[in-house]
Every structure is written in C-alpha cells, then in structure tokens.
Amino acid sequence: MNRIDLRFKILREEGRKAMIPFIVAGDPEIETTIELVEAMDEAGADIIELGIPYSDPLADGPIIQASSTKALLNGVKIPDIMEAVHKIREKSDVPLIYLVYYNSVFRYGIERFMQEAKKAGIDGLIIPDLPLEEREELMKIAGNYEVYLIPLVAPTSQERIKKICENGKGFVYCVSTTGVTGVRQDIETNIKDYMDIISKYTDMPKALGFGISDSEMAKKFKPYCDGIIVGSAIVKKIDEGKNKTEIIDNVKKFVKEIKDVL
C-alpha cells in the first residue's frame, strides 16, 4: 500500500486530519532541507511536500517564488533533491510528495524522473501546470512506478472537477481560493459548499491548501476536509530564521501547533 493511502487510513481510524507542510528543497540549502523534513516528521506532519525549485513557478506567490529563487541560486538540481530523499528515507517513513512543474519533469526525462523518484522513496507528485488534456502519458508512466499523480482542483474548476479527479490517486489537492499561494488573513470561498461539490465526484481524501497561515485557520476549516496544507507560512519562517538551529526549531514548533488542532 502506498504510504499516502496508509496514512489517510490511519487518520480516519483515529478521527484526525492530516497536517501537510510544504517547503522548497534547497532553501536555505539541501542539508537543512533534510533536517527540516526530519523535524516536521517528529512534530507530527502526516505527509510532506517538497517543492522542486523552478524559475517560473506560476502557481506560487512571492514568498515561495523567493524561496525557489534562493534554492536555484544555491545550485540545487533534481539529482541533489533525489539524493536528499534517499537520505531522509534512511531515518523516516513519512509520506513524501514532490511539487514540481511539468517542464522540469519533461526536460529531465519523464521515465527517468519517475524511476529515480520511486527509487528515492517518493510517494506522489503534484504538477500544478499539467494540463488535463496532456496528462495521460505522464499518468501512465507514474502508474508503472507506483508514484501517485495527485489531482489539483480550484473553485473555478467547476464542471472539470469530475474529469480532473478521474484516475487521480492519494488525495485531492483543493486550492482554497483563486490566485497564487501566500499567507492570507481569511479565505472568502465557501469551503463547505466547495468540498461538497468535490465529494460528488470522488471519495478520495480532500486536502485544503493555499492561504492557510496558522492554527486558527486550520481549526476553522478542518471540519470540511481530510487534511490541511500549509506552505507559505512555513517558508516564511525559514526565511526569517537567523541560523539553522532557529529555522528548524521555529518550523518544528509551528508544525506541531497546527497538528495539535487537527
């Protein structure tokens, strides 16, 4: 059983919701990324997203864009990230997902990327710019390596939600609002109605992301979904840390605060 399925099965049995943090691999540098994953795992993270840095991350707001730029300036490349995942797997069995833009996969070679991701210990992929009409080949290759391609829907998806979720695996990444990622004070979308619409088309777990910035927001929205995704707020704490120890301590504390309300 894929680690993602197993984790959601355990969470359902325990009546809890998933805490899914996101960080950019290689920010501030790759060794800290490894230690951050281990710290978030210890803090109770259920699934961890690792962003593969990209020069034009169209779905990301300024906080994650800046993080991705720093990682690229550090010279971090896909083989470095694959090797980091190998090292993480020596100590941790937490489900791991790559958030990666399609051009990075295509240029690396789809087959090569999937093979190395599986060998490293990656459980799933989120590809925010993969058009629905062009995902068949990639989904087939991912399936051959038992790497889940996680569907991503938005409030504007409407009648496309059914098609987007078809053959998807793991969970549905539910974008909370229109626009890009970023820390928000509130989310205007009617989350209950939005989740109800998605539930008409799939029984996969639903994880809500984009704009959830603290434990209060996580607590507010947890009744309507199966997991909460937090990215920009964590990346911001990494940026604000004065040194590695402070970065890891602050992120670990923040992840635990959110996990405690879920």
TrEMBL record:
Q: Which UniProt keywords are listed?
A: Amino-acid biosynthesis, Aromatic amino acid biosynthesis, Lyase, Tryptophan biosynthesis
Reaction catalysis annotation: (1S,2R)-1-C-(indol-3-yl)glycerol 3-phosphate + L-serine = D-glyceraldehyde 3-phosphate + L-tryptophan + H2O
Gene Ontology terms for molecular function: tryptophan synthase activity
The cross-references to Gene3D superfamilies, in alphabetical order and at most eight, read:
Aldolase class I
Gene Ontology cellular-component annotations: cytosol
Task: Specify the superkingdom.
Answer: Bacteria
| Pathway stated in the Swiss-Prot or TrEMBL entry | Amino-acid biosynthesis; L-tryptophan biosynthesis; L-tryptophan from chorismate: step 5/5
Q: Which residues form the active site?
A: 49 (proton acceptor), 60 (proton acceptor)
Tell me the PROSITE patterns matching this sequence: TRP_SYNTHASE_ALPHA
Coiled coil listed as a keyword:
no
> So what EC number does this one have?
4.2.1.20
Q: What function does the entry list? A: The alpha subunit is responsible for the aldol cleavage of indoleglycerol phosphate to indole and glyceraldehyde 3-phosphate.
> Which family, according to UniProt?
Belongs to the TrpA family.
Q: Which NCBIfam families match?
A: trpA
Q: How does it assemble?
A: Tetramer of two alpha and two beta chains.
Stated name of the protein: Tryptophan synthase alpha chain
Organism annotation: Aceticella autotrophica
